[in-house]
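Me: I keep going back and forth on a fold encoding question. No explanation is needed for now; the record alone will do.

Assistant:
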Amino acid sequence: MQGQTQSSGATQAAQPLMQTPPHVITAKDLSYLKDAMSWELIAMKKCAHYAQECSDPDVRACLDRIGRLHQRHYNLLLQQCQPTAVNQQPQTAAMQ
C-alpha cells in the first residue's frame, strides 16, 4: 500500500505547472470559482458582522483586517472571471 502512495505522488510531481490560466473556463472550473467566491463572501460577511458585535477594539480591528483580506481574495477571483484587457485590445483597435 505504501508503494502505491509513493508512485502516485511521483507521477503528480512530474506534471508541469500551468504558468497562465487557460483562455477557456470549463464548467468544472466555473463551479470551483463559484464555490471559492461564495466561501470568501461568507467569510467577509461574518467578519463584518462579528466586528460590529465586538466591544474589544483590538478584536474588532483584527476582524476588520481579516474581512478586508477575504474581500481582496474575492476581488482577485472576480478578476479571473472577467475578460482581460489583452483580449479586448484587438476589438478596440479594429474600431479605431
In short: The mean pLDDT is 79. Residues 25-82 form one domain.
